[in-house]
Here is the input.
Amino acid sequence: MDNLQELLHGFTIAVTVPHLLLMAVGVLLGILVGVLPGLGAPNGVSLLLPLTFGMQPVSAIILLSSMYWGALFGGSVTSILFNIPGEPSSVATTFDGYPMARDGRPTTALATAFGSAAFGALIGVILITFLASWVAQVALAFGPPEYFAVYFLAFASFVGMGGAAPIKTVVALAIGFAIAAIGIDTVSGSVRLTMGIDELVKGVNFVVAVMGLFGIGELLVAVEEEFHARAVSSKIDWREVFRAVGRLPRHSVALLRSAAIGCWMGITPGGPTAASFMSYGIARRFSRRGRYFGTGEVEGIISPETADHAAGTSALLPMLSLGIPGSATAAVMMGGLMIWGLNPGPMLFVDQKDFVWGLIASMYVGNIVAVALVLLTVPVFAALMRIPFVVIAPLIVIICVVGAYSVSNSYLDVVMMLGFGIVGYLFKKLFYPLAPLVLAIVIGDKAEDAFRQSMLLSKGSLGIFFANKLVTCLIVGGIALLLLPLALQLTRLLRKPAPSADETTVQATVQETAREKVII
Amino acid sequence: MISRRALELATAILTGSFGVAVVVSSLDNGIGWSSAGVDAGTFPFLTGIIVVLGSLYNLVRGVRPVASLANVPIAITPLELRRLAGLFVPAAIFVAAIPLLGMYLASSLYVFAVLAIPRHQSVPRALAMAAVTALALYVVFERMFQVSLPHGALAAALGY
Here is the structure.
């Protein structure tokens, strides 16, 4: 039980007064960005990023990851109390959370959501505790072809399982790769794709893209609909909190199933949003009370919340052990790791034990801190929602502008950020996925390097990707995932009169619900 | 009013032209195999080709009307368009004004304008919020985090 020993050591790093304070600050800031529509976890984390440059990496990652937990929780608060999802991943929570709160049980809805969210996060962290170092150990033996194969598999799984239109995902991914290639090529040193703009030599920073895509883009989507904060009472009845949490074990099947879905979607880069929708769709299908979903069912809250947090947490597993983030926020954090001079991937588990295990231990503690703080501050943040949107919107614009500028003190970045805002709006409106785009910007260079190094090894033959069992499996798996949407479409065409296979219908209903309710 | 189809087309053309630009520009770096291994332009070239092909597919899909619940014909109603413009146009003017006015002046004018001109807030309150915004930016960035925000050409001309 080496892992447990390492974990205990991690606790000695995470549970110190300064780190607990950082967690509290991170969680509170996270709830703030989670509550505000138009600011999300990816934005919040990238805004904080420049402020962490002077910190110890382990302190910095504790701050950023705590912000992530806070944002995940904050998104649920507004979903339940105002029917306004503060985060894309908590859209599915509005389906049953808001009806329950409206029926006069806001405390029950909130406590159920937080309880199941904490459970999902716990399962995710346990998974990381036991699996991450093992995956890292396997990955230590990887050469460039294996790395490229893993990247390929990750990108292919976005296409195969992301839930968005496959070709739109491919376009988003490829655009991300092209953006990542802008600037100086790390292998040959030549300048690429600057299109005659000298300043582009430094490349396009992912923070700039995130500010525009998620900040301005989301704001533009949000402003289309008028927000009327139909406030449900936000008073917390503490006895009801414990009663609601006490009732959770009765739904253990839903809890475990949703956690499993969440972990799977988090590790394969499906992301929390897809996980929560999928979990909700499956729960509605398999629950005995499925037809009551949408009217304030307990399992309708448990399923998306558990999956959302399980996915959000386990998205850090591939980031830590392989250097491939499982969600947009994880991608931003990984960008941070690289800025702090750490090399995300299996070597972290060898060189940076304190960092890794401090982070993992902080996830246990951070989620407890998050649950406590979010319950305590619900009334405060609910009051924040009563500030009119017209006042909040310009402030968010200024935050994004300053955030983009402060990355490298460049005005061009601000202009690009605004451009990314338009792209983000169009993409959201037309269901192009944004997470693969950000992911490709962050790890595009690494994927390209892995490809070129493999080609150098094999002197230009693609055969190197089929040279041994492992790499062949990964590549074949990736190709299978790429072809999955095509295969599903073919089977649907062939069996048109009969209802298609279970999975596709679930997927379809999930997508339908996703589209019926406007994705913010 | 903007139809879903028009929006799909516009986006596909946007992504497609980006793809073409990437392809053309990557040809300068050389594609294929040289003594140093894979040429620098190869990878961007391939991604550019994928973007172009994918955009063409989306273009065709966008033209062909698909009757289903998910494909509502109208993407943006006139009212929504007005709201969008109401947010984006001032934001764009704000960004355009930064080099001249500097971050502080531009942001406080921006806050004042969007709050006071459509009469969302009274003039004194909007003024107060504008002042607080600039002050908060100054304290947080210039003082606490030592990040110098642009002061603008106007400030430079006045000798600051």
About this structure: The longest helix of chain A spans residues 106-140. Chain A touches chain B through 62 residues (CB under 8 Å). Strands of chain A lie at 183-184, 191-192.
